Amino acid sequence: MIYLLLGALLFGGVHVIATVLPAQRDSLKNAVGAKVWQSVFSIASVLGIVFFVLAYLNMDQDLLSQNLYQPWPAGRHLLMLLALIMFILLGASMGKGYIRLYLRHPMSLGIALWAGGHLLVNGERAVVWLFGTLLVVALADLVFSFMRGKKPDYVPQVKSDVRAVVIGVVAYLVFLFGFHPYVLGVPVVN
User: Fold this and answer.
1) pTM of the full structure
2) Looking at residue 124, what DSSP letter applies?
3) Which of 66, 45, 72, 69 is nearest to 1 (CA)?
4) Using CA atoms, how far apart are residues 24 and 86, in angstroms rounded to an integer?
5) How far apart are CA 74 and CA 78, in angstroms?
6) Which of 29, 73, 75, 87 is deepest in the core (most CB within 10 A)?
7) Distances in whole angstroms, Cα of residue 53 to Cα of each of 3, 8, 30, 49
């Protein structure tokens, strides 16, 4: 359980500071420098995800078997579609294409869809804690970014969208057939 808490604190904490408290974020960024802030933000985010994965891998069966609610049996196919969309949106968030320009915040939207999909098909306390944290952070980022009027400003290129789709599909397949079954021990395709 300690890994779950550390993951939520590290990942959620830096994102909450960056999203909900922009004045404090900017003052901290000015105090330590932009590169140091970005490094700390990235390291804390990655460590948070590592702690989430460690929490899942080290979870005892009692905690994994504690269902908070009954999952939606038909949601598995929806989750697979949402996961594919999430990977494409992650790819789009790093480019200068029409997808990013139109959606404004494709990474947060993708994470929200992916986390929400996992909550549909998993009712275990540990899984709800993990994906609930990711969903709250993603939704907070979407809401506060839209409230501040934050949006990308560039001339979009179709090749960036094509690259996002290719990267997204490849990453999806790696997760589907590699990471999920062999690292997490949870086969997605039977």
Assistant:
1) 0.83
2) B
3) 66
4) 30
5) 7
6) 87
7) 9, 11, 32, 6
